Amino acid sequence: MNSQISLIQQIDALLPQTQCGLCGHRDGCLPYAKAISEGEDANKCVPGGQPVADALAVLLQRDKLAAEESVWPIQIDGRPQRMKAVIREDECIGCTKCISACPVDAIIGSGKLMHTILTDLCTGCELCIPPCPVDCIDLVEDLKAIPNEQERNFEQDDLRGRYYAHIQREEKRRLNRKGPVVRAAIDSQLFANITQGSEDLPSIELAKKAQISHTLDAKTTIELAKIRTQIKKLEKQLSVRADEKKQQQLIDLQKQLEQLQNA
Ligand code: SF4
Ligand code: SF4
Ligand code: SF4
């Protein structure tokens, strides 16, 4: 088992950590790494292109296969053009659906407020585009310099960490979530199994309904209900007339709600 986990980790280390699901593994790079370790072809990572397919073939001592084609042109490093998402902010209605969809938490904003993308973190995975009800997210070429190997490894580690933090947070919210659920539920069991057998991967712990309800004592439950009511009231008022003070109150209450839910 440990040697299989070590192989999955070595494969995962070569994958770009875009978590886009274009390899056919909806939940991202780690599930694809696992499938490759069990015999699946290693040429399906679209953003990785030919360099990743070749590196995997060398690692696994398999024949080199032509990489799955991308719709984007190929860069000088042999990988497809890197892309970034940009929100047309004047059209955004602040519905928050893109936030849940982003695997690396590159979008900031809260209910009824304009959203924006932190372009340094965006990997161009495109997962925020389908959920947007007003189609106000565009993809543009990422004109940043192509990273060297060291920079790429650093970036991949950062994206992996961000994705696992995202999974852990979604896992905590899963059982008492009130907001929109956009992305299909991530198979957190798989991540928990693999990460718990590895010292190098950030571990994912599964939420259990019983544990969650024990931690939510009566006082917290009442407090949560109170905050939700205040949020609804403020959202209603703000949908009629903008008010800076009330907007700030709303943001503070949303933060409080999130802290209590994650406690
Ligand atoms: S980056 Fe590659 S391996 Fe990771 S999810 Fe996308 S296609 Fe799959
Ligand atoms: S902002 Fe959109 S395109 Fe960029 S990483 Fe997040 S989900 Fe992917
Ligand atoms: S999904 Fe679209 S409309 Fe909704 S917050 Fe994101 S960018 Fe704005």
Automatic annotation (TrEMBL):
Molecular function GO labels: 4 iron, 4 sulfur cluster binding; electron transfer activity; metal ion binding
Organism the protein comes from: Acinetobacter gerneri DSM 14967 = CIP 107464 = MTCC 9824
InterPro entries in the record: 4Fe-4S_dom, 4Fe4S_Fe-S-bd, 4Fe4S_Fe_S_CS, Elect_transpt_cplx_RnfB/RsxB, RnfB_subfamily
Keyword Membrane among UniProt keywords: yes
PROSITE patterns for the chain: 4FE4S, 4FE4S_FER_1, 4FE4S_FER_2
Superkingdom of origin: Bacteria
Pfam families in the cross-refs: Fer4_21, FeS
Protein name: Uncharacterized protein
Keyword field contains Membrane: yes
Segments forming a coiled coil: 224-263
Location of the 4Fe-4S domain: 3-62
Ranges for domain 4Fe-4S ferredoxin-type: 83-112, 113-142
Keyword annotations: 4Fe-4S, Cell inner membrane, Cell membrane, Coiled coil, Electron transport, Iron, Iron-sulfur, Membrane, Metal-binding, Repeat, Translocase, Transport
Lineage: Bacteria, Pseudomonadati, Pseudomonadota, Gammaproteobacteria, Moraxellales
